[in-house]
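Supplementary notes for students who missed Thursday's class. We covered one full example, reproduced here. Read the sequence, then the structure, then the short commentary at the end.
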Amino acid sequence: MKIEGSVVALVTPMHVDGSVDWEALQRLVEWHIEQGTHGIVSVGTTGESPTLNWGEHIQVITKTVEHAAGRIPVIAGTGANSTQEALEWTREAAERGADASLQVAPYYNRPSQEGMYQHFRTIAEAVEIPIILYNVPGRTASDISNATALRLAEIENITGIKDATGDMARGAELINASPEGFSVYSGDDVTALELMKLGGKGDISVSANVAPALMSQMCQFALEGNFSSAEEIDLKLQALHTGLFIEPSPCASKWALEQMGLIEGGIRLPIIPLTESAQPAIRQILNELGLL
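Structure (token representation):
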């Protein structure tokens, strides 16, 4: 299944006691399909993967696949800083019907470039589903170099990378050197359009949680080369892109969705709900975008 355009890094909806809200998950999947979202990442960092246990992690992926029912691709967030754990998660997600896997750079243990190459290679060679690498050094303290990404791109089922560095020079270099069939996606909403102008194939987006139709339209225009129309939408969205990180993500996204009547306000420690002092700024952004 083709993966491009606006791919939402979906929040995991929770009740106020922190338990997963399975009915709300189904509503969110249906809403995203109705709004034109092109794909879903299930249980990425925005989906609070660090605080879901093994069973919840796999069940959220399973339910998301079931609800999507082949209408849009579901990319399972199955990366870990343990190669064996990432491999087991990825095998399980593949068995449950995920269309692809998102594999974050191993975090905290800070492997060498060769260590990262062997980590991703081991996982990719053990499964058949496509693997999308995820480079977010600001969170992981582990950076997949362009050279390592290009080595990995030679492996048949490593089909892309989510680049959350926000470095356009680096992104351009990677896009220009990538082999056919290897896609570069933005993981930074603020600069996503700029990366797509350089040849990026889409945006794995936090903002798409809250403004899916606008993100879908922006990405579609960009893919069509209609950059003037894409820029008009992107300009409207910039305040949202930055506002959703006013406090640690995904608390602002979840608060916004609660105000929009789509989910309850549950979130798990160590992330806490959006503070009262931050709420007026997010409410103003939502009002300006006509989302409330």
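Commentary. The CA atoms of residues 251 and 274 lie 5 Å apart. The mean pLDDT is 97. If anything here is unclear, bring it to office hours.
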